[in-house]
Amino acid sequence: MRTKFSKLLDSLHSSFWFIPTLMVVLAIGLSFLLIQIDQTLQPNVIGQFGWTYSLGPNGSRAILSAIAGSMVSVATTAFSITIVALQLASSQFGPRLLRNFMQDTGNQVVLGTFISTFVYSLMVLRTINGVEEDEFVPHLAVTTGIGLAIASIGVLIYFIHHAATSIQVDQVVNKVGCELDDAIDRLFPYKIGHSGSKHCSEPSISSIPANFDRDACPIPATKSSYIQAIDSHQLMKIAQESNLLLRLQQHPGDFVVKGSPLAWVYPIESVHKKLIEQIHNAFVLGSQRTDQQDVEFSINQLVEIAVRALSPGINDPFTAVRCIDQLSAALCHLAQKEIPSAYRYDDQDRLRVIAESVTFASMTAAAFNQIRQYGQTSVAVTMRLLEAIAVIAPFTQTQADRDALLHHANMIERGSHEGIAEELDRKDIKQRYLFAVKAIEQN
């Protein structure tokens, strides 16, 4: 339930309608409240406040009509600017980066401010009565409408500045890098040696039944989609209540085909229709990947920006170097984190769930492989990749992590022989390679 609630919050955060809708509802509520106050207080009492609007019904209608009309025009302009920004982002950074712009709370608040001010003006405008014997002008509500219009001008100035800066490549890369760091902290909260886990990464021989591979029952996927999240607590509860051993075939970020196994359940005698439904409910599937439980998602976003920058049509190695810097910082961060074991035990120390987990080696491969392949002919990119490995090496904690870095350093250095023709450039790359190897061996 908690996983699905997090997915719902992420969907609302990524939508362009939720915050504006909420602000419109608040504007309607504010209009009713202020109109009620105006109806309760005597006009002479409101007139004692020097800052309130005190003209008659015709002037009030004119002001609110002007505010409402201008807000519609400004909202249309802001929406047009947003669409243009999304088109530029899609063409320059890749369509998968559109989600980051859709999640921009600033744009949502700007659009909500203009629409809610428009709706507020209409709600107040309908109550103005110019009939002499029953004249009513909600002075306090009209004054608030003027205040909202002035605030909207400030919001418009902010929006112009925000729209201009949000599509700058440094801002985009830095934002994705921050999201990657947040995902690492959220998914791997413990530093190495600080989790207090009493279980090693490998189970004892007796923990896994000898006939598991032969007698386990597969739980097929009901549709072809991406795994966005897995409720591990729910799976552990199911395994304990039914005395099962579950092995997950996929992890968040993987694409599953309808009918392919999501998980294997042992023993097969315990499998029934309700159990299958419960296991399905523990998996959150969707049409696209998210960073909710998929740390590789943000890595792929940075890699996509770098690869597009290295394409012949753009040819921007500086952007690729900027992405490599963010990836190296993220891998330094990840190297210090304790990645949970694939083997999960219950309170009685019985193995209940085997869940495939990410590794530092797999994350390093996701970060470096495509950039190395597409940047093989770029001296600047090749040297920065080797420099990044030298920076990451002191943060590694295990020999397996260092072996992964050495593996990529060797591939980068070998690739330079084929992609770079100038001998002096290859010598510079060789120096960085030797420096990276030395940094790896010293740890």
Summarize the structure.
The chain is α+β, with helices and mostly antiparallel strands. The protein contains 17 helices and eight strands.
Topology:
Elements: H1 2-14, H2 18-40, H3 43-47, H4 57-93, H5 98-102, H6 105-125, H7 139-166, H8 169-187, H9 212-215, E1 217-220, E2 225-230, H10 232-242, E3 245-248, E4 255-256, E5 261-266, H11 273-281, E6 283-286, H12 295-309, H13 317-335, E7 343-345, E8 351-355, H14 360-374, H15 379-392, H16 399-419, H17 423-441
Parallel strand pairs: 3-8
Antiparallel strand pairs: 1-5, 2-4, 2-6, 3-5, 7-8
Helix pairs in contact: 2-6, 4-6, 4-7, 6-7, 8-12, 8-13, 12-13, 12-14, 13-14, 13-15, 14-16, 15-16, 15-17, 16-17
What does this structure look like?
The structure is a single chain. This protein is an alpha+beta fold and 443 residues long. It is built from 17 helices and 8 strands. Among the domains are: 2-167, no CATH class; 180-191 and 292-339 and 359-441. The strands form 2 sheets. A 5-stranded mixed sheet has the order 1-5-3-8-7, covered by helices on one side. Strands 4-2-6 form a 3-stranded antiparallel sheet. A hairpin with a 5-residue loop joins β7 (343-345) and β8. The mean pLDDT is 86.
Structural class by sheet pairing and helices: alpha+beta
Order of helices and strands: HHHHHHHHHEEHEEEHEHHEEHHHH
Radius of gyration: 29 Å
Strand order of the largest sheet: 1-5-3-8-7
Query: How many DSSP E strands?
Result: 8
Low-confidence stretches: none
Query: What is the 3D shape?
Result: flat
Mean pLDDT: 86
